[in-house]
Amino acid sequence: MKLQEQHIYGSARLGVVKPDLEMIGAVDPSDVGEFDRVRGMKRYELSNHLGNVLTVISDRKIATVDNGVNIYYHAEIISYTDYYPFGAPMSQGTTDRTWSVEEYRYGFGGHEEDTEIYGSGNQVDMGDRWLDVRLGRTLKIDAKFYKYPSQSPYSFAVCNPILYVDPDGKEIDLSNLTAEEITKYNAVIEMLSSSELFSYYYQQLVESKTSYKIKASNDLNGRQVGGYFDPNKNEVGIGVNFSSYVVAQELFHAYQIDGGFYSNNDPKPYSTIETEGDIMSAYVMLECGGLIPTFGDWIDDILYEAYENIPNSTEINSKEYQEKFQKAVDDRIQYYVNEGLDTPTYTSPNTGEEPKAIESVIKGAEEELNSTEKEKK
């Protein structure tokens, strides 16, 4: 039995390695002979902002020689491909836009090519459905077609593949963002997704029956650094600076309503909702290495345990944690009273509500992790 191929991953797939490694056979631990490193087995993907694999190179460098002297090196190119808007590769010939020395199975949108039915370069597997790149239509209806009555259930990327991507047939509505803002948003989401907690509640929003609209605008009070979530419009405002902390918090507020932890029509108590958002955002920042903004003594009063550790599902249900959370709510209310911001969002009374949404995310993320570990075994 041989290992023919293995993915190379960073924050996403970077390429593959083809070791052709024999996996059966005894190895003598006393045999400390020489080991070879063979270049040319790795394939690295060079992709654009839409995830399209444009060029594949190996880890072998090719020398350019002049009079017996190496002048410079260049990468060994395995393939290159330019695409028509919906993913069909531009034909070989006089245009010279597609070329390869060997087939590479990932291409448009980073998806795997499916060559079994329609041949090479005609169909890709998106995970949730298949895309015929010649027609720009999928072979299966969108699982969330009911969200978009104005769109064909077989359409791809709302018929605008230059601006939008559809990685797996699921989505968060980015139609209110410009191309530059989409690039910034995707970069923030990629960074935040290194947090298991964020990955869990973001995925719940992606799979929700509700379509959430992302807007790059100031909060409802017009503050440049702020964000907002409007449950009546299912609108998530992430500010104009694309702060990872703000993005994490406002998407979590959407999760609080989407999960049914608070009423959609009249989400109360505000102080508990906002305190949960502050704390969860701090936990996410801890996991992904992001920055937690500081506002005077507020940071010390509210984010109490976030600097020490992120509780597990057992610890968060403990009496000690619950008492700390209620104190955090009280401290948050008092902070804004002292600041003169005596509005319901900031200073509504503490009614003793438990941090139900935080508990749900921590428990859900643990279950996802345990499930992944079982699959690996």
What is the N-to-C order of secondary-structure elements (H for helix, E for strand)?
Answer: EEEEEEEEEEEEHHEEEHHHHHH
Q: What is the strand tally?
A: 15
Uncertain parts:
none
Strand content: 15-25%
Largest sheet: 6 strands, antiparallel
Q: Which percent bin holds the helix content?
A: 25-40%
Keywords:
about 375 residues, alpha+beta, 4-stranded antiparallel β-sheet, 8 helices
Provide an overview of this structure:
- By secondary structure, this protein is of the alpha+beta class.
- It has a domain at 172-377.
- Helix content is 29%, strand content 18%.
- It is built from eight helices and 15 strands.
- The strands form four sheets. It has a six-stranded antiparallel sheet with strand order 2-3-5-6-7-8, with no helix packed on it.
- The chain starts with a strand and ends with a helix.
